[in-house]
């Protein structure tokens, strides 16, 4: 039997990294690794890094400084602690990490983490740090399937990667350089994964990919499938109650995807559709390949197909060259759409991207001021959207016991947390909840009769505030 060893993974960034961290756990489980919450106790620490935020690499180096002390301490206690850096900073920095932080044993990019056991063994055997290049083979076919116990421990909602990488080359983004060109997984493999998850109690699947609706994985007839067709196929898997997908590019919304929202009740009426800016001039500078009017038309197509659909988005404030008029166009677009929520960030340059070379920078003070105005508008819309749920009956997928004793928490179709007093038997079920009040972002209510009709929550469309 393999000796048990402790594994600590610290994951930063997006859903894809959360999913990758789980798959690293699955990859290392046959080697005897079990997860621990404490880096200090671990035999292997993995920093699963993200390159999206500002100074991402510097943050990794300062974390590695702290881990050096833990590694020294472990050595004094006679333990051999190993340290690996994975994720997008690993891909972007490569050998530089090994040079600047000799404490690191393995550097592994997002396409290669299925090789972790071999890389760790190679580092041990050769007594030197090992780094990987982009591989040519398919990572997904090499990854071991998660064990039923691991699936059950992760709860009723699960991510499944359907594609990775991106060919869009938005001028601010590192993804095409760190995750590579767009690659889609075959439909049959995705169906197998979803079937296995459903067999072990998962009720909700979120299909993930950097540009998920560019999905074109090969179907059973050897033809490229669309995301819409994939959703149809997955809705037929017994036990799957809810389907979501993230993150979409407006240009890749096709009729099949819109029709999936119209025809498949399991496809949730909530779409994360980043627009980044409402100004055509800035959208062109970002190489987003669509105008504000194109985006609005896409939103209308969704709404026509399913009236209760709601949207969230991403915004970048202060992109190089953004004028007050450009920013006003963003506020106008937000006011016109009426979002259920959105993420907004100040622009910060990513080394190696075209936008990092743009000279017309916006001052920090201006960015701060614009970000505050945008967030105020979005927060108002989100608050109105949540408040509109009070007095309605909504479907909730119950996920786990809440912190308050006796309370169970779940999520609505729009990912709003919803709390009720109930027994833990309801975990894993989709049940109607009569919403009575709102506590910050959480809905509070009581279980309604299983046959209670659901209300249609139509998102508020705000026409002022820009
Ligand atoms: S579509 Fe998304 S992932 Fe692709 S380059 Fe643009 S921002 Fe990056």
Structure description:
- This protein has 466 residues and is an alpha/beta fold.
- It is 35% helix and 21% strand.
- It has helices at 15-28, 56-76, 88-93, 95-100, 116-126, 139-142, 148-153, 175-178, 187-199, 227-235, 255-263, 280-285, 292-305, 324-337, 364-387; strands at 5-11, 33-35, 44-49, 82-87, 106-108, 130-131, 157-161, 163-164, 183-184, 204-208, 242-246, 270-272, 310-317, 341-346, 393-401, 407-411, 417-421, 430-439, 442-447.
- The strands form five sheets. A six-stranded parallel beta sheet has the order 2-1-3-4-5-6, sandwiched between helices.
- Helix 14 (324-337) links the parallel strand 13 and strand 14.
- Helix 10 packs parallel to helix 11 (255-263) and helix 14 runs parallel beside helix 15.
- The structure holds iron/sulfur cluster.
- Iron/sulfur cluster (SF4) is lined by residues 166, 168-170, 173, 175-176, 210-211, 249.
Helix content: 25-40%
Number of helices, where a helix is a run of at least 4 consecutive DSSP H or I residues? 15
Query: Alpha-carbon distance between the termini?
Result: 65 Å
Query: Oligomeric status of the shown chains?
Result: single chain
Mean pLDDT: 90
**The biggest beta sheet, please?**
6 strands, parallel
User: What ligands are attached or bound here?
Assistant: iron/sulfur cluster
Residue windows where pLDDT falls under 50 for at least 5 positions: 460-466
| Principal-axes shape call | globular
Q: Approximately how much beta-strand content do the residues carry?
A: 15-25%
- Overall SS class: alpha/beta
Secondary structure: number of strands: 19
Strand order of the largest sheet: 2-1-3-4-5-6
Rg over CA atoms: 23 Å
């Amino acid at each position: 039997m393999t000796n048990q060893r402790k594994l600590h993974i610290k994951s930063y960034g997006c859903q894809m990294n959360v999913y990758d961290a789980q798959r690293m756990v699955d990859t290392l489980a046959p080697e005897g690794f079990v997860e621990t919450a404490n880096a200090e106790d671990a035999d292997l620490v993995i920093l699963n890094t993200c390159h999206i935020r500002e100074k991402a690499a510097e943050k990794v180096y300062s974390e590695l400084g702290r881990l050096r002390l833990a590694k020294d301490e472990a050595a004094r206690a006679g333990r051999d602690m190993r340290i690996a850096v994975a994720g997008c900073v690993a891909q972007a920095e490569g050998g530089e990490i090994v040079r600047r932080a000799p404490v690191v044993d393995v550097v592994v990019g997002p396409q290669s983490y299925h090789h972790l056991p071999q890389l760790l063994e190679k580092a041990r055997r050769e007594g030197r740090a090992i780094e990987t290049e982009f591989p040519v083979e398919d990572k997904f076919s090499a990854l071991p399937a998660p064990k039923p116990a691991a699936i059950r421990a992760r709860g009723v909602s699960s991510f499944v990667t359907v594609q990775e990488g991106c060919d869009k080359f938005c001028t601010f983004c590192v993804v095409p350089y760190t995750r590579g060109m767009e690659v889609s997984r075959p439909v049959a493999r995705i169906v197998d994964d979803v079937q296995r998850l459903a067999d072990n109690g998962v009720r909700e699947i979120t299909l993930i990919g950097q540009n998920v609706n560019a999905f074109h994985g090969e179907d059973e007839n050897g033809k490229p499938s669309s995301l819409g067709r994939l959703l149809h196929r997955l809705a037929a898997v017994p036990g799957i109650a809810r389907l979501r997908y993230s993150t979409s590019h407006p240009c890749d919304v096709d009729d099949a995807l819109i029709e999936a929202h119209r025809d498949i009740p399991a496809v949730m009426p909530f779409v994360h559709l980043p627009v980044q800016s409402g100004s055509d001039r800035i959208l062109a500078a970002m190489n987003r390949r669509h105008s504000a009017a194109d985006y609005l038309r896409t939103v209308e197509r969704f709404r026509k197909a399913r009236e209760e659909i709601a949207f969230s988005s991403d915004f970048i404030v202060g992109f190089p060259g953004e004028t007050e008029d450009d920013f006003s166009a963003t506020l106008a677009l937000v006011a016109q759409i009426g979002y259920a929520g959105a993420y907004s960030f100040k622009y910060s340059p990513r080394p190696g991207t075209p936008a990092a070379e743009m000279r017309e920078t916006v001052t920090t003070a201006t960015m701060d001021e614009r970000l505050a105005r945008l967030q105020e508008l979005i927060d108002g819309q989100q608050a109105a959207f949540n408040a509109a749920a009070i007095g309605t009956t909504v479907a909730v997928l119950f996920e786990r016991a809440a912190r308050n004793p006796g309370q169970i928490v779940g999520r609505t179709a729009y990912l709003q947390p919803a709390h009720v007093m109930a027994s833990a038997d309801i975990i894993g079920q989709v049940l109607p909840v009569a919403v009575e009040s709102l506590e910050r972002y959480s809905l509070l209510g009581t279980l309604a009769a299983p046959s209670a009709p659901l209300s249609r929550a139509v998102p508020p469309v705000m026409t002022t505030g820009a």
